[in-house]
Write a structure and sequence with these properties.
Helix content is 26%, strand content 42%. The protein has 5 helices and 15 strands. Strands 1, 2, 3, 4, 5, 6 and 7 form a 7-stranded mixed beta sheet that branches. It has a 6-stranded antiparallel β-barrel with strand order 8-11-14-13-12-15. It is globular.
């Protein structure tokens, strides 16, 4: 009963110290999108030279502007899937952006390319066979602006490339694969730009000098899920400023409630146990 009372008090006190907007969701929207690449104007001689080069090397590279709208859709998908952002077309029409943190995005697409490479191979009978592989490449730069102030907050660039597709596929398939890669890259970047944050409540299972499991104050209410990874940081205040030092990594094993999850310690078990035993404040920040 005494242990239960201690645990109850620990969780209650921690919950009271958690800011209500710690993992707040923000609105995000794509404002402008433009495809800036234009095919070079080449002389007849240069054009013939480019064709001959492709014939001799078996390699070609062709811009595919017909996919501009599809790439825009892939960008929106990437923005929409981020954990702490909600895609909201109404953000542009709203006259009341009293809160900061909402994001308006401009996109510049600089490259949508389909590449092919052909090689001659011989089968067991000595017959020559031409094998062609296709690769899609897409380059995009996003400019993120605060919806309230218009200030630029970041300008990440993405270079998405598909895997090589075999002869029985097409260059279009390769480009569509690159679009899926682009969406994932944008989502991953936003998840790291606005990560989920939590605190370690207390240690769970330990073995000798190493911590094996811990409880964190993040559950289903703020988006915790099984398999989510965190970095573990010791938090210190130096000259009025918060300083963090990473000492380990965690993985969510089980979401046990609205504001609690059990995590497995993946690295730094010894340092985490020592920090917990000495009463240091430990913060966890999502890293995927």
């Amino acid at each position: 009963m005494t242990l239960a009372a201690v645990l109850c008090c620990t969780f209650t006190i921690s919950a009271q110290n958690v800011p209500a907007d710690r993992n707040k969701q923000y609105n995000i929207v794509l404002n402008n999108s433009q495809y800036t690449h234009r095919d070079e104007k080449m002389s007849t001689g240069d054009a013939v030279s480019k064709i001959l080069t492709g014939v001799l090397t078996g390699k070609t590279s062709v811009q595919a502007p017909k996919f501009e709208e599809d790439v825009k859709t892939a960008i929106v998908k990437g923005l929409s899937n981020a954990r702490r952002f909600r895609y909201n077309e109404g953000l542009l029409q709203s006259s009341d952006n009293a809160e900061g943190g909402h994001i308006v995005v401009d996109a510049v697409i600089t490259n949508i390319t389909a590449k092919s490479e052909s090689k001659d191979t011989k089968d067991k009978d000595g017959k020559t066979k031409v094998t062609t592989t296709y690769t899609g490449l897409i380059d995009v730069t996003l400019t993120l602006k605060d919806a309230k102030t218009g200030d630029v907050v970041s300008s990440p660039s993405f270079n998405a490339q598909s895997s090589s597709y075999p002869s029985n596929s097409t260059s279009d398939q390769a480009i569509r694969s690159a679009m899926s890669t682009l969406s994932r890259q944008i989502t991953n970047w936003l998840n790291k730009y606005r990560p989920l944050k939590a605190n370690i409540l207390e240690g769970a299972r330990a073995k000798k000098t190493k911590q094996k499991e811990v409880y964190i104050d993040l559950g289903s209410r703020e988006g915790a899920f099984e398999g989510l990874h965190f970095g573990v940081y010791v938090v210190k205040t130096i000259a009025g400023r918060e300083a963090k030092s990473q000492i380990g990594k965690l993985k969510v094993e089980e979401v046990e409630g609205a504001d609690i999850s059990l995590c497995k310690v993946q690295s730094g078990g010894k340092d985490i146990k020592e920090a917990l035993d000495s009463g240091q404040q430990l913060q966890v920040i999502s890293i995927d």
